[in-house]
Amino acid sequence: MVELEEIYSLYFKDVYLFAYSLTRDKHLAEDITSETFLKALKSLDSFKGESDIRVWLFQIAKNTYYSYLRKHKKEIALDSIGEIEDETDIEKIIFLKEESMNVHKVLHQLSEPYKEVFTLRLFGELSFKQIGELFGKTDNWACVTFYRAKRKIREEMRKNE
Predict the structure, then answer these.
(1) pLDDT greater at residue 136 or residue 104
(2) Rounded Cα gap, residues 73 and 128, in angstroms
């Protein structure tokens, strides 16, 4: 049990941030994170250590999120729209949220594997080596895919200006 507590304390924040990058919803990210660690606990014996444990946890989180999406495909959650922070410079917040939303819209339209590689690198903060391991490819493949995704996002953002 000590091993799981150690894993939890070391990787909770990373898994939560990754889940949040997928869901853009604090509560759902918390649920996905909790479910990820429960699943990790149940299958800890099957982890062979061939990849970074963080990559393994991210894979569990991603699959948990995809399962959630399949189950809730037809539901629309109004509480997932997001909360506006109470700040004095509301114009700045609105501008930043609009820009962020535009980037997320473009990111959402990207085809795979560009979307996932970009998300893992930027929001999951994984190295190219870890991303390559996750896909069963080389770190060079992950690097090239990430930069192509970035280029595609920039091109789409310029079209939308």
Answers:
(1) 136
(2) 32
Buried b / exposed e over 82-92, threshold 16 CB at 10 Å, is: eeeeeeeeeee
pLDDT at position 79: 43
The CATH code belonging to domain 90-161 is 1.10.10.10
Contact criterion met (CB below 8 Å) for 119 and 107: yes
Positive or negative CA dihedral for 153, 155, 160, 161?
Answer: positive
* Residue-range domain boundaries for the chain: 1-74, 90-161
The reported pTM is: 0.48
Any idea which architecture 1-74 has in CATH? Answer: Orthogonal Bundle (1.10)
